[in-house]
Design brief:
Blueprint: E1 2-11, H1 15-23, H2 28-31, E2 35-39, E3 47-53, E4 59-70, E5 74-79, E6 86-95, E7 101-110, H3 114-141
Antiparallel strand pairs: 1-7, 2-3, 3-4, 4-5, 5-6, 6-7
Helix pairs in contact: 1-3
Length: 142
Amino acid sequence: MSFEVKTETTISASAARVWEVLVDFAAYKQWNPVISRVACQLHEGAKGKAYFTMGAAGNVPISIVIEQVKPKVELSWSGGPRSLFHGTHYFRLRELDDGATHVAHGELFEGAAVRFTHGLMRSKVVPVYQSLTDALKRRCEA
């Protein structure tokens, strides 16, 4: 079973500017309300950790593998046990004719545990991902 969280926005900035913000992992803590840090090299197949802000639990590290690095087009990574609860987190960019950038941000969750968390993910995870998308927009337009 699978479940996809997907948010979208249009950012009044070039795809180059959005890409610059997305790949500046060290600066995530300055603007990103969901992922405080990514400790990983930026190339496909690189292994590292993404630190997710989880309220009282603090920053929870998740082991990740960089899946796609297509400058100004797509950044994605995956993590979690494949058969139980595996996610592929993505940012997909498309520069528009007016110089703005359309961003699709989300995650595809797969595995046996997805069927048991579907309702929770719809009610809790979607708004959290939207908050990250909104924060990315603010950062890029500043």
